[in-house]
Automatic annotation (TrEMBL):
UniProt keyword Membrane present: yes
Keywords: Cell membrane, Membrane, Transmembrane, Transmembrane helix, Transport
Molecular function as annotated in GO: dipeptide transmembrane transporter activity
Family as reported in the entry's similarity comment: Belongs to the binding-protein-dependent transport system permease family.
UniProt GO cellular component terms: plasma membrane
Keyword Transport: yes
TM annotation in the entry: 12-30, 101-121, 133-160, 180-202, 238-263, 283-309
Bilayer disposition of the protein: Multi-pass membrane protein
Protein name from the UniProt record: Peptide/nickel transport system permease protein
Compartments where located: Cell membrane
Organism annotation: Chelatococcus caeni
Length: 315
């Protein structure tokens, strides 16, 4: 286990280093000058003033020097300050991360909790008439874009209940029920493709596990079909399921950022889009790096859970 953890941490460091280089480079390929956009178009903006601001922000340095200065500061916990507000970018991110985190956790919980019974049901319906209907429903769930589903839900519910508040965000500390009510629809929209994917995966792994020799042996010993399914097959079928949950958590972060725009949720999605429009390099770099860090940490946790479920994976 320790050896596997050490190897995974090295992989994590390599991934973060590569992402930091790509992020730093690609952000600067976005057309437009951050300083010119910040100062705006007016008579007081002169080339000398633009150059002075560039020097103050360190943007006059060559690309590689800017990167190593930023990387050195990151290792000391300093992610820089926002070009527009002058506040530390960590404070900017902290003010927007909670809605995105809530939405992601709620969507993932919905997907996992519903995918397990749905996957078991799909496996039990194999060869029956209802199987075609369930399979078609899962394909629809995979192909429906979350943002389109979110818009459709808003339109339908606004016609049924026009006075129902569907957009925006209410902090949990102020109104717990209102907070959950505002996040439920976007969570359903963004979790539907994940739910369909996980349910189909669990069905496939369950059917494969039911064909294994140990299942035949247990069946020959008189174990009931229910016992075979829940006591023996499900444990092994959950191994690839758990791995996929970790991968899907990363995709949920990306999906949550998109769906936040539909439901006017002030999360990381709004922060990232605003930083792109403003060419706010420090804020954008820090946000993408921290989102990547959360993605790889989730996958690290999943790898550890994988090793707990199947100790052979830790070797």
């Amino acid at each position: 286990m320790i050896k596997m953890l050490r190897r995974r941490l090295v992989d994590l460091a390599v991934v973060l280093f590569g992402v930091s280089i790509l992020t730093f480079a690609f952000i600067r390929l976005i057309p437009g000058d951050a300083v010119a956009i910040m100062l705006g178009a007016n008579a007081e903006v002169t080339p000398e003033r633009i150059e002075a601001v560039r020097e103050r922000l360190g943007l006059h340095l060559p690309f590689y020097q800017q990167y190593f200065v930023w990387l050195r500061d990151v290792f000391t916990g300093d992610f820089g300050v926002s070009i527009w507000t002058g506040r530390p970018v960590i404070e900017e991110i902290a003010g927007h991360v909670w809605p995105t985190l809530q939405l992601t956790v709620l969507a993932l919980a919905l997907a996992v909790v519903l995918a397990i019974p749905l996957g078991i049901l799909m496996a039990q319906l194999r060869g029956r008439r209802a199987e075609a209907f369930v399979q078609a429903a899962s394909v629809i769930g995979l192909t429906v874009p979350p943002f389109w589903l979110g818009i459709l839900m808003i339109l339908c519910l606004s016609m049924v209940a026009p006075h129902l508040q569907l957009l925006g965000y209410v902090p949990f500390s102020k109104d717990p029920l209102g907070n959950i009510a505002r996040l439920l629809l976007p969570a359903i929209a963004v979790s539907l493709p994940i739910l369909a994917n996980l349910a189909r995966l669990l069905r496939s792994t369950l059917l494969e596990a039911m064909q294994q020799d140990y299942i035949r042996t247990a069946r020959a010993k008189g174990v009931s079909r229910r016992g075979l399914l829940y006591r023996h097959a499900l444990r092994n079928a959950l191994i690839p399921f758990v791995t996929s949950v970790g991968i899907m958590a990363g995709y949920l972060l990306g999906g949550a950022i998109v769906i936040e725009q539909v439901f006017a949720i002030p999360g990381l999605g709004r922060l990232i889009l605003g930083a792109i429009a403003e060419r706010n390099y420090p804020l954008l770099q820090a946000t993408i790096l921290l989102v990547t860090l959360s993605f790889v940490l989730v996958n690290l946790i999943v790898d550890l859970l994988y090793a707990v479920i199947d100790p052979r994976a830790a070797k």
